[in-house]
Amino acid sequence: MQLIDGAHVPVVVVGGGQAGLATSWHLTAQGLEHVVLEAESVGSEWRNRRWDSFCLVTPNWQCSLPGFPYDGTDPDGFMVRDEIVGYLESYRQSYDVPIVEGVRATRLEHGFRITTTAGTITADQVVVATGPYQRPSLPRIAERLVVPQLHSSQYRNPDQLPPGEILVVGTGQSGCQIAEDLHLAGRTVHLATGSAPRVARFYRGLDVVAWLDRMGYYSKGIDEFDDVDAVRFRVNHYVTGRDGGRDIDLRKFALEGMRLYGRLLDTDRQELRFADDLAQNLDHADAVSEGIKDSIDAYIAAEGIDAPEEPRYRPVWEPTETPETLSLQGIGAVIWSTGFRRDDSWIQVPVFDGRGYPTHRRGVTSEPGMYFIGLPWQHTWGSGRFGGVADDARYVVDRIVEQRAGVHWIAGLHRTVA
């Protein structure tokens, strides 16, 4: 499909990842004319910004895009990077997606005038599906380091890194998995920890994700939580689906030679300085994991489920002292696993709060006809993932249909326009 400069399209979806494709599927089912603008190609986010051994941390059975549930031979396994790309490409081929690839939206103005790298179009309604991982976030301390450094989105495999020891900063999902990848390859790894929690892979006979799904956790709307902002911006629990799935236990890595530190504080260009909070960070991660097990135990007891007993986790290593400095001599590279920031600077419509976050209710903004899809915790835990984006896409498209019929939704309220 080609984009025609000056054309008017009833609905424009910006972004051709899983959120944009799910929205397109529902628009197609409703018979609504639309176009999907994709800056690169379908699956490029997974293909170009994930390392070689990357795999999902949620089981394959949770991959359930609209009209395209996972039907492979390993529902309890975890798709690796190239399989994820293939899943999205197959989804794209499963229905007639009106997508234009290689075209980036560069400006969205009032009246839904959309400037792109291939011309300007207008729309009655716009769905922003650009995802949460747009601009790599680096701390200012990175400017003062003279060693080679890269963001986690640029990491591919241990062989791309220069000789020497490697410092990984950040213990979210990416940081822990990259540290493990390097550790398994025999590299000496230094890991600066943070406050990210962890979760067990399996407990009492099932994947913990399966237990939480049964317990209704993944269908719980964010408005049911007392601390909405804390939930929306919290760091994901670290765990892995590698080799069939397992825990990531930083204490075990320490026993095997990985060197753990507290939070990175500062540098004088010769050495790095860390906070004295390593033990606290490890204890916090373990406490969250054990708390999840407590909730599973309570659910099993309440429902009378016959599940095998399992001994609780016991720490295999304790820091006897917390190293507070690390010489940069011998460090071959630093990998920053410090997350991403949204980049909505191209959007000139006032739908953002003081922090630059889109103000919305389930993706419906205060600007009639403008929507977001694929935001983390847009409505539920699964909103930004394969498991829950289908429900969000259906909700947004239902609102699009209603608005076209004369019903305007604003901040969760609606009125019929005569």
Automatic annotation (TrEMBL):
Domain of life: Bacteria
Keywords: Oxidoreductase
InterPro entries documented for this protein: Auxin_biosynth/cation_transpt, CHP04046_FMN-dependent, FAD/NAD-bd_sf
Entry annotated with the keyword Oxidoreductase: yes
Keyword Oxidoreductase: yes
Signal peptide residue numbers: none
Pfam family, one: Pyr_redox_3
Name the record gives this protein: Flavoprotein involved in K+ transport
Organism the protein comes from: Kribbella aluminosa
